[in-house]
Amino acid sequence: MKITEAFRDPELVWRLSGQLAQWAFGPATIMEVCGTHTMAVARFGLKSLLPPGVRLISGPGCPICVTAPEDLDAFLALGRLPNVVLATFGDVLRVPGSATSLERERARGVEVRVVYAPWEAVTLARNHPDKEVIFFGVGFETTMPATAVAVKAAAAENLPNFSVFSVHKTMPPALRALVERGEVRLSGFLLPGHVSTIIGTEAYRFLPEEFRLPCAVAGFEPLDILGGIGSLLQQLKEGRPRVANVYPRAVSSRANPRAQALLKEVFVPENAPWRGLGVIPGSGAGLGERYARFDARRRFASLLAEVALPPSGLCRCGEVLRGCLVPRDCPQFAAACTPSRPLGPCMVSPEGACAAAFRYEQA
What we know:
Helices cover about 40% and strands about 15% of the residues. It is α/β, with parallel strands linked by helices and about 375 residues long. It has 3 domains: about 5-60 and about 170-245, Rossmann fold; about 65-170 and about 260-305, Rossmann fold; about 325-360, no CATH class. Helix 3 links the parallel strand 1 (about 30) and strand 2 (about 55-60).
């Protein structure tokens, strides 16, 4: 039996779900802050296995979803430039801005290229010296090293026509902001596995130490997730919050040293706007002075200064990302807002809570 099959074994999943009731100690609201967790929980129906009173809600774990509307509109505005290529991951294509989307702009003639890795944008710039290639750098700590490698490669080749519009964000400052906001009374966090391979479990110590919140880093198979929830319930029952690592086959307590060195070389912390959470100090990642010539925000500052702030619309994705609203309780869900007619990114992204609920949790 392969390891992924073992972690999906129905008998083991059922046995572990039965043990959760023994660990449960009254009502508990647990927030998962990873889009892959969100989709896996919905896909495998794990909420139905939770003990009575234990509630699992989604948080700001989808990097596409937390991208601020003004940042998306700014990147869309760069399509007005002559001889420009907007390079992006495929899950950004259909995310609506305040007036348009990359998919619509491509239909109108803007050259939009879908890439599967940042280095492909560097290759585009190398092969098309007459074009200005701008890569939409999106994602948490997991994808930041790949963007850093691309920037270094462009610098090594001295490519004059490559730049990055960075909307990269880091997870710990967002968790702090979420807890300090205090809108939702949380019992603990199910923490992301992918991000934690880069930053290690020590990065979350402030949650149990300052806020007395149990935490568990988990993988993405059903047993991983249920094991993480079980750890959280045990911590609550014992009254001893900590950061538990139930994904040791991939995550360690310390940060990945090579990845951290790479990020420190290329990026600098910046204040960054998040959809639904506002500006969070030090949560963004801009290009440092050494690589400033590849920073699209600086290179095209005059054009970006003309981009107006988007008006507020019907989309309530921001409330979903804060855990204040369950997707199915949104009046637009599955009515005015569907995957074919999305009002916001939570219904578009493959890691979005609304997309997961629409696909797997409708009665």
